[in-house]
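dumping this here so i dont lose it again. seq + smiles for zinc ion
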Amino acid sequence: MLSLKSLRQRWFLTGALILASTVAQALELPKENRVPGGIAIIPLQGLNSNIAPSAWYKGNRVMVLPSAETAFADQSKWIAVAGIPLSAKADQKQHLRADATSFYFQVDDKEYKAQYLTIKNKRHVEPDPEDVKRWRREKAKMVAAYKSWSEPSIPATRFELPAKGPFSSPFGLKRFFNKQPRNPHSGLDIAAPQDAPITAPAAGTVVDTGNYFFNGNTVIVDHGFGLTTMYCHMSRIDVKIGDKVTTGDQLGAIGKTGRVTGPHLHWSVSLNNTRVDPILFLNK
Ligand SMILES: [Zn+2]
C-alpha cells in the first residue's frame, strides 16, 4: 500500500512532468538542418543582456529567441534561428551578425532532385513583357510581406499542416517547365480536392492577399519574428489584410489558379525573407 508521503511525491512528480512538457512544447524549435533551404540555430554566446540582441543575416533581420527551456540553454542566453537560402554554397562561410558580434557557420551541400512539368498555358512558361512587368510588381509586394516584422508574446516555431492530403512535390526541386529550367520549388505542394479547406498552421496576422500571375489567389500570414507562411493557387480567399488568425482558422480553399497542373496547395515558409523547407516546422 502507498504511504501518504509516496502519494504526495507521485503527485508532485506528475505535476512537474506535465509542467515541463507544457513548457517544452511552447518553445519547441524547428528542426535544425544546415543545408541550402534549411535552418541554422546559432547560440549567441557572449550576448547576455536581458534585451534580445538584434541579429542579421544576408541583409535580413533574423529570429532571436531566449534559449531557456531549449537544448541550447547551457550554451547561451539567446539563440538565432536563421533560414538558409537555396543559393547558399558549402564552400562559403556564412556570416550572421548579432548586435556588434559576428558569428560564422558552414552549410553542407544538398542535392535536390529535378522535376519536369508540362504547363498548358504557354504564357506561364514564357511570359509576355506585360506579364513580366506584372510579375515584378507582384514580387515586390510579396517580398514586402515576407519582410514583415512583429513580436507576438508567444513566437510560433512549429506548424500544423494547413491542408489534408498527400505531399505531391517536396521543397527544393530543380524545376523544368515544358523542358525549360526555372527557379527551384520554393514550397511544399499538398494535393487536395478543389475547394477543400486551407487552414492557418499557427497563430498569426494576414499581411498580404492578392491574385498573382504565377501564384494565383494568394494569402501571406505573418507569425512573428520574421516567420511568414504563404498559400497559393487558392480557389477562394476567406481572409483580408489585418485579420488575426489562430491555428485551424480557415484562410480559403484549394484551387488551381495561377501556374498549375491541377488543384493543390503550394505552401511556402519564409524565415528572414528566405524560403525554407516547411517540413522542418511540422509537428509530425
Ligand atoms: Zn508548389
